[in-house]
Specification:
Layout (H helix, E strand, L loop, with lengths): L1 H6 L18 H14 L3 E13 L2 E7 L6 E7 H5 L10 E11 L4 E11 L2 H17 L17 E7 L3 H13 L4 E7 L6 H13 L6 E6 L13 H9 L4 E5 L8 H4 L2 E2 L3 H8 L3 H35 L1 H4 L1 H43 L2 H6 L4 E4 L24 E6 L2 E6 L10
Parallel strand pairs: 3-5, 6-7, 6-8, 8-9, 9-10
Antiparallel strand pairs: 1-2, 1-4, 2-3, 4-5, 11-12, 12-13
Helix pairs in contact: 5-9, 6-7
């Protein structure tokens, strides 16, 4: 075959070199396709069996993607199917080793199943746990990333199945607790291969609305396979990226999809979600009444306490009879004035008596009183031997020798005399 190809020197070497005037033979295109496809390796793929028909030694099946509307027909030898412990049937989830084959004569592409294995619950759980641990290692489940729910959301976004019991439970219980609550509902597929895309689309649409305060993703219980969309990595990352708080209300208490770990709040059931996203109006009104009663009692106690203090202050003597304080001070002032006047009077009288006594002493000691008692003061008439002095008082007889003119001062006046000398006193 290679010799024939090399011999045709006029045939273009590549498909890009072909033209209407120089085309490839159909055989050459088929051969090149087969060579290319034969070089492609086998691949393990996961899907769901939606069709299965046995025809002799061959069987034909159709695999559909788990999360997308993509299907692929394939063929398998019946001996490969017979090796399975549990017979495959429609709806089974499997992993299959596929190899592309190109039939040269008919130009038909066939996907041949070389091996096929059912995916059991254990395999699904193990796969979910591996994904859970990987996402946890990235920090997607950290409490620091979780957002607080508003105390009273004005509008709630609800993503749930079409006319589902979960939707009815959330709406009914939320309305019973807070009748004024408003919902923005998005009905989507909550299982099957379109569920992930529809839930992500509804989540992003509600997250973009500023009037939506919280988003609830709700679904009733079901088999593990039915809840697999809520453990899808793409959905988990979309919830982690949401700006609006997200509440997960999937299945029953025992169900634990990965969505519960990444959501800002996990509710055990849709009914529990309704109870946790809105307060109970009856309880809130009771709390308001209780708060009002406490406030009223507090104000009443305060007024009563201050009234008692005011009454106590008013009953004090200084406030009951304010003039008493003035009268007491007036009496004190009058008493002090009397004491001061008496003290001053006593001091004046005592001082007056002392003054009289001193005057008497001064008068008694005065020279005039001495003269009145008969004494006389003898003075030299011309100053005597005391130069610069006049009327020098004679204190010794020698100061007035005989012939000295004297002036004698007595009580009645003065007179002159002349000294006749002095005599020695008797007895020396």
């Amino acid at each position: 075959m290679s010799e024939d190809l090399t011999a045709a020197t006029t045939v273009p070497a590549t498909a890009a070199e072909t033209s209407p005037d120089n085309p490839w033979p159909l055989q050459l295109l088929s051969q090149k396709l087969k060579l290319h496809i034969d070089r492609a390796p086998s691949a393990w793929v996961e899907g769901q069996v939606i069709e299965l028909n046995r025809r002799g030694t061959n069987a034909y099946l159709t695999l559909r993607d788990i999360d997308a509307e993509i299907s692929l027909p394939a063929s398998v030898w019946t001996k490969v199917l017979d090796r399975q412990d549990i017979p495959l049937e429609r709806g089974s989830r499997v992993v299959a080793l596929l190899k592309a084959e190109f039939w040269l004569k008919t130009g038909r592409l066939n996907m041949s199943v070389k091996d096929i294995r059912p995916v059991g619950l254990g395999d699904l759980l193990a796969r979910i746990e591996r994904l859970r641990h990987a996402l946890a290692a990235e920090g997607l489940f950290s409490d620091a990333r979780k957002k607080r729910l508003p105390l009273l959301p004005h509008r709630i976004g609800l993503i749930t199945g079409r006319d589902s019991d979960a939707k009815k439970d959330v709406l009914r219980n939320a309305a019973l607790r807070w009748p004024a609550v408003e919902f923005e509902i998005r009905e989507v597929a909550v299982q099957g291969n379109t569920a992930v895309a529809q839930v992500i689309g509804a989540l992003r649409e509600l997250d973009a609305r500023p009037d939506v305060d919280v988003i609830v993703i709700a679904r009733g219980g079901g088999a593990l396979e039915d809840l697999l969309p809520f453990s899808n990595e793409e959905l988990i990352r979309a919830v982690a990226d949401a700006v609006t708080p997200v509440v997960s209300a999937i299945g029953h208490e025992a169900d634990r999809p990965i969505l519960d770990d990444v959501a800002d709040l996990r509710a055990s059931t849709p009914t529990d979600a309704a109870k946790r996203i809105v307060p109970d109006v009856v309880e809130e009104l009771a709390r308001v009444r209780q708060a009002r009663d406490q406030l009223r009692r507090g104000v009443t106690r305060l007024v009563e306490r201050e009234t008692d203090r005011l009454s106590s202050l008013r009953s004090r003597p200084v406030l009951a009879s304010p003039e008493v304080m003035v009268a007491a001070r007036h009496d004190d002032v009058e008493r002090l004035k009397g004491r001061a006047h008496a003290a001053i009077t006593t001091a004046v009288v005592r001082s007056a008596d002392q003054l009289v006594h001193l005057k008497a002493q001064v008068r008694a000691l005065s020279p005039q009183m001495t003269l009145d008692r008969g004494y006389a003061v003898v003075q030299l008439a011309d100053g005597g031997s005391a130069p610069g002095t006049r009327h020098h008082v004679v204190r010794h007889p020698t100061e007035a020798p005989a012939g000295t003119d004297l002036t004698v001062r007595v009580a009645g006046g003065r007179f002159t005399a002349q000294s006749t000398g002095h005599e020695e006193p008797a007895g020396g």
